[in-house]
Amino acid sequence: PLKIVVIGGGSSYTPELVEGIILHRTTLPVKELILVDVLMGEEKVNIITDLAKRMFINAEMNVDVSYTLNRREALNGADFVLTQLRVGGLDARRKDERIPLQYGVIGQETTGPGGFAKAIRTIPVMLEICRDMENICPDAWLINFTNPSGIVTEAIHKYSKVKCIGLCNVPINMHYDAAERLGVNPKDLYCEFTGLNHLSFMTHAYYNGADRLPEILGIDVEEGIVENINKIEEMDIIANQLGFMLSPYLQYFYFEKSMIQEELENLHSAKGTRSDEVLEVEKGLFELYKNTELNIKPEALSKRGGARYSEAAISLINSIYNDSNELHVVNVINHGTIPELPQDSAVEVNCIINKQGATPIHIGSLPTTIRGLVEQVKMYETLTIKAAVTGDRTTALLALLNNPLIHDVMDAKNILNDLLDAHKDLLDNF
Ligand code: NAD
Ligand code: G6P
Ligand code: MN
Q: In this predicted structure, what is the pLDDT of residue 222?
């Protein structure tokens, strides 16, 4: 029987996970689920724990659910640890989104300077969790959902011994989008991905022996695949010209001006930035969660960007536990899979999943049309990790200078100063 520990258990996404555990009950014998949080999140994790209990009872499953603020105690005997925490909460996210915009630069929580700030706040905390895991449950798997997921995963591989796989819900949603456009069962479609977390490209989509991606790209759809990014129509056109299906996060790079304009319009309206929206969605969600009549995952959770998170996370755990050699698109260490990128860096590619973990399938060279962008973002990511662990301000500046969404040294300097100042209580290394 399995013990699963969720760090950041007060997240409104946790009912997703519980649903995933319920759906996998025949193959995944979960006995214990512990939700770990910090004082700031105690009220939320308490509500979620009660909801999780009701969901398991409703499913007639005997899972021991509890919460604790004592991480080390929780880790004792853990088989799988899921991390989904937000250092500094939505307040910190709000600053990450707003500060860059003051300088006319993209304000987003995972790409651009906002993603940099989230990374330097988060990496030291994640490495502390890893220290605990090394001591308390060295054989446990860490499934990391905490953003920026690829960067965090690379930092863990570089600075700890913990077995870690990084996860994002974008690839699985791109896969379902491709299958839906083609009108086929997602299970019958094999999609190949290359690139990085939030910088990914679907390069092939094989159905019954033929690559149907060109056909898929010819079909326009209005709806985007994640709730937090409004789809720009021209994305389908450039995707067609490139010959790849594009992660919605590529809008920030390919349509930077339009995205900044949209962000500024929202900022100066009642809408604010995405964190303001999420704050409202969360309020509504926790009102629902508190209702003792509720014993299933509510539909309203689909207003968050992390759709299909549970499917991705729990089926990944299922593949490891059952040694099933299934394919998942996850964040792993490159080891030459993409020859242009450093051996020890994280990439988001197709992997075979079994008890040994995630083994990337050989992808080969990055197509020339996207190589420059991917390589540049990887250099930014590598420098960001170095800055996070050393607290060196020059390295931090050079990281930002390598981010393709920053075009001027003075912008980089000003944004860095403002971010370090705004988050100083959460940045012990600096
Ligand atoms: P949230 O603000 O609800 O935070 C989740 C919980 O983490 C909160 O209850 C908070 O109290 C807790 N927390 C903060 N610091 C902690 C610490 N040091 N130890 C333990 N718990 C701590 O956040 P959310 O919106 O649910 O998102 C959680 C994380 O998942 C974020 O990092 C977010 O970016 C990420 N996320 C990733 C994806 C993906 O595709 N990988 C998708 C959605 C969200
Ligand atoms: C997306 C991404 C996540 C991102 C999240 C935002 O789909 O894959 O990495 O952080 O959803 O969702 P939110 O509802 O918090 O804006
Ligand atoms: Mn993601």
A: 86
The answer to whether 31 and 321 have CB atoms below 8 angstroms apart is no
pLDDT of residue 368: 98
Alpha carbon of 62 to ligand 2 centroid (Å) = 31
The C-alpha atoms of residue 397 and residue 416 are separated, in whole angstroms, by: 7
Residue 288 burial (CB count, 10 A): 17
**Element housing 36 (H / E):** strand 30-36
Q: Ligand 2: which residue has its CA nearest to atom 12?
A: 305
C-alpha dist (Å) from residue 334 to 190, 293, 345, 362, 382: 21, 47, 6, 9, 13
Residue 148 contacts residue 175 (beta carbons within 8 Å): no
| 109 CA closest ligand 2 atom index | 10
> Distances from the Cα of 133 to the Cαs of 75, 76, 185, in angstroms?
7, 9, 39
Contact 234, 228 (CB under 8 A): no
- DSSP assignment of 124-192, as one string? HHHHHHHHHHHHH-TT-EEEE--SSHHHHHHHHHHH---EEEE--SHHHHHHHHHHHHHTS-GGGEEEE
Q: In angstroms, how far is CA 185 from the centroid of its own chain? A: 25
Q: Are 22 and 53 in contact (CB under 8 A)?
A: no
Instruction: Give the ligand with the smallest distance to the CA of 226.
Output: 2
> Which pair of structure tokens corresponds to residue 283?
């309020």
Model confidence over 152-162: pLDDT tens digits? 999 999 999 99
Give ipTM to 2 decimals.
0.98
Residue 46 neighbours by CB distance under 10 Å? 16
Task: Write down the catalytic residue from 13, 249, 252, 380.
Answer: 249
Ligand at minimal distance from the CA of 70 is 1
Q: What are the Cα distances from residue 206, in Å, to 366, 396, 408, 419?
A: 19, 42, 42, 44
Whether 23 and 296 have beta carbons less than 8 Å apart is answered as no
> Under a CB-based contact definition with an 8 Å cutoff, are residues 341 and 374 in contact?
yes
Question: What is this structure's pTM?
Answer: 0.97
Residues of the chain with pLDDT under 50: none
Q: Is 249 a catalytic residue?
A: yes
- Can you tell me whether residue 291 is helix, strand or coil? coil
Is residue 352 classed as helix, strand or coil in its secondary structure? strand
